[in-house]
Design a protein that fits this description.
binds fe (ii) ion; signal; disordered N terminus; Purple Acid Phosphatase, chain A, domain 2; about 400 residues; six-stranded mixed sheet; 24 strands
Amino acid sequence: MKLLGLFLCVTLLFLCPFISQADDDSKSDPQQVHVSLAGKDHMRVTFITEDKEVESVVEYGKQPGKYVGKAFGESTNYGYLYYESGEIHHVKIGPLQSNTIYYYRCGGNGPEFSFKTPPSTFPVEFAIVGDLGQTEWTDATLSQIKSQDYDVFLLPGDLAYAGSLSQSLWDSFGSLVEPLASQRPWMVTEGNHEKEFYINFRSYNARWKMPHTESLSDSNLYYSFDVAGVHTVMLGSYTDFDSYSDQYQWLEADLAKVDRETTPWVVVLMHAPWYNTNEAHKSDGEKMRKAMESLLYSARVDVVFAGHVHGYERFKRVYNNKADPCGPIYITIGGGGRSLAPPFKKHHSKLSVYRESSYGHGRLKVIDGKRAHWSWHRNTDSNSSPGDEFWLESLSASSSCWPSSRSKDEL
Ligand SMILES: [Fe+2]
C-alpha cells in the first residue's frame, strides 16, 4: 500500500509540470481568428489570446507549414466592470498575391489557418448580410454562406448583440464566426448594438479593426476599400453625419477620388436603411438620408446595402423618394439570424420591388465593369433557387447619367 502511495506521488510530481504546461499552451492559443482587407495587397489578421504576454506575430506562406513570411503587429485589451478581455492582436501582412491561398499561424503557436485573397480583376463575389447575432438561425445563415464560395464578406452592422453588460458574448461571437472569418476577409460596419452604454464602440473598435487609416479616415466607424473593380464605402449610422461632420467631409473626399475606369462599381453599406417600408425602425435612417443622399447620388453610387430591419427588401433606383434611373438601388439585408421583423404590411411604396420578413443572405456577383448579378437566399432555399434575383448594370456605363457637358470627374 505504501509502495502504491509512493508511486502515485511520484507520478503526480512527474505529470504536474506537463499539466501546467498544457494549461499555459491553451492560454497562449489564438482564439476568435478573423481576417480583413488592409489596403492594397495586404490583409489584417486579428486574434485573441488569454495570455497577455503572447507576441503579436503572424507567420504565413503559400504552402502548409512553410512560413516564409513573418509580420509583427500591435495588441490591445479592455476591461468593463467585472469583465477583462483577452489580449486582442492585429497584425497586417503582405504584400500578398491576389486570388491565392495563404496558410498562417498566429502568435507563434496553435493551429494552422488558411485564407484566400480576393481576385484583382472581375469576376468578384460578395456575400452580404447584417444583424447576425448568435442564434440557431445565425448557425443556419452561416452554414448556407459557407456552402458556396465567395471572395469577401460584407456585414452592415449588428454583430454579436453583446450589450455592455454581456461582454463575453463578444468572445462567443468571435468563436462562432471564426470558421468563416479566418478564411475570407470579413468587412464590417457598426450597428446600434455595437454602441454599448458608457463604452461607445470600445469593444467593437478593439476587436473589429477595419482599414480606416488605409482609406484616410480618422475613425474606425467609417472607411472604404477597393476589391477588383469595386469601390466599397462603409458608413457609420451612429456617428455624426451632418455636412460639418468629419464623416461627411471624409465621404465627400473619398467619393471625389473614385475613378470609374479602375473601379466601375461603387457600393455603399450602412446599418440603418434610408428606404424601408417595414414598421420596424421606420424612420431611423431618415436624418442621415437627408444629410448625405445627394453625395451618393452625385457620385452615381450603384447600390446601397443596409441592415437593422431583420428581413429583406429591394427598392428600385431611387433619389429623394422618387424613382430615378441615376440613383442607387437600395437593399435591406438584415435577416442574418438575430430575430425577424414583423411581416410587411399590404399597402406599400411603389418604389419597393420585393420584400419579405425571412432569414437569409445576399450575393453580389460582379461579372465585369458593366454587369452584376444580385441574389437573395432564404436559409430554407437551395443555393440554385434564390428567393429574389436580378441583373444590375453599373451606372458608370449609363451615358444618360453622366451629362455630356460635365465629365465623370466633375460630378
Ligand atoms: Fe440594428
